Amino acid sequence: MSFIGIAVGLAGVSLISMFLWMLSLSLRKKRMEQEKKERDRQYRLTLARAKEQEHQERIMKAEYGHIPTILYLAKEAERKNTREALYWYEKAADLDNVHGMQGVIKISQLHAEDLVLKEKAKFWKKCVKAFNGDLTSKYETGVALIYGQGIAKDPERGLEHVISAAELDHIDSVLFLGQWFQAKDNPLSEPEKSLHWNKVAAKLGDKRGMLSLGKNYLKGVGTEVNFFQGCYWLERAAEKGSPEAMCLAGEIWIDKKPNGNAIAYTWLFMAAHYGWQPARQLRDKVGNSIGVDSVVGLQSLTKPLIRKISDGKVPKHSLIRAFNKLYKRKVPIPKKVAIPADDLAVDVLAAEMSQHQHSQDQANPSNLNQVPSMSSEDLEPSKANTDLDQHQAQPLDFSQTPMDSSFKQ
C-alpha cells in the first residue's frame, strides 16, 4: 500500500508540476505576444509618423513647384480623392507640364455634370495642342487666359501666349494684338503697339490688318493723324475686297472738293453691292448730291471694277493709282513698291474715268473752274466720320434700289 500511495503521490506531484509548467509557458507566451504586439504598434506608429513626415515633406516640395513630386501626389490621390488629385494636376498644368494638363482633362471628364470642370477640360485641351506647336491653339489659350475663359484671369501670361504666336506670323494673333493694345477694356493699353501689330498684319497682306491700320492713321491711334496714309490702307483693303474698307474709304471722301463725291460714290456703290448695309444710305445720299447722270455714269464705270475684285484680279495699287492719276490726289504709294511694266490696266481705267469726268464737266461747266487739288481744310481729318467700327457685315443683299437699276448683277 505504501508503495502504491507513494506512486500516486508522485504522479499527482508530476501532474501539478506539469500543469504549473504549462501555465508558466502559457503566461510567457502571452507576455511575449503582448510584447510583440506592443513592438508592432510602436513600429506602426513610428512608420506612420515617418510616412506623415515624408508626406508633409513631399507636399512642401510640391508646393514649391517640384514637378515629379506634384505628379506623384496627384497619382496617389487619384485612387481615393479625385478633387485632391485635380488640385495637384492643375498645379502641374499651371507649370506648363503636359502630363498635368492631361490629368486635369481626365479628372474633369469623370465629372461630366460639372460645368466648371467641363470648361476647364476645354481650356486644357487647347493647352495640350498649343504645347505640341499648334499656333491657333496657342492663340486661343492666350485669349482664354486674358478673359478668364475656363481658367482664372491672367492677362500677362495670356498676352505672352498670343505674342509668341504672333511672332510666328499667326494672323489671328497679330490682328488680336492690334485691337487689344487700343481696347477700352485693356487697362494698360499701348496705342503704339496697336499701330505696330496692325502694320505687321498689313504687311502680311491681310485686308483686316490693312483696314485696322487705316483706322489707326485716320484716328491718330499710336501715331499722328494722317488722312492720306489712312486713305491708302483703306483702299488697299478695298482692292482686296473688304466691303467695310470700301464703305469707310468712300465715307472719308464725301464732300471733299473738287471730286471727292465721285470717289466716294464709287467706293460706296461697291460696298453696298457686297452687302455692307451702312454703305447703302451713304451711297444714296451722295447720289442725290451729284445727280442722276453722274450716278448712272459712275455705276457703269464701277461694274467692271466689281467683277475684277470678285475674281481677285485687281493688280496691287491699280485702283489707288487710277484715282490718283485721274483726280490728281496725293494718296502715297510706297517708293519701294515697283510699278509694273505693264501699266495698261491703270491707264485704261484712268482713261475711262477721265472720259466720264470730262462728260460730267461738260454737263456742269462750273466744275471746269475748279482746281483739282485739295486744301488742308478740305481734308481736315476731324471731319471724316470714322465711326464705322461698330457696324457688322450683313448677309449679301443682291436686290437693286432704283439708283442701282442701271447695274445688272
Automatic annotation (TrEMBL):
UniProt keywords, alphabetically: Membrane, Transmembrane, Transmembrane helix
ATP-binding recorded as keyword: no
UniProt cross-references to SMART domains, sorted A to Z: SEL1
Protein name: Sel1 repeat family protein
Xref: Pfam families: Sel1 (PF08238)
Membrane spanning stretches: 6-27
Keyword Signal on entry: no
Polar residues: bias regions: 354-376, 383-409
PANTHER family per UniProt: ERAD-ASSOCIATED E3 UBIQUITIN-PROTEIN LIGASE COMPONENT HRD3, SEL-1-LIKE PROTEIN
InterPro entries in the cross-refs: Sel1-like, Sel1_AlgK, TPR-like_helical_dom_sf
Chain intervals for the UniProt region annotation (Disordered): 353-409
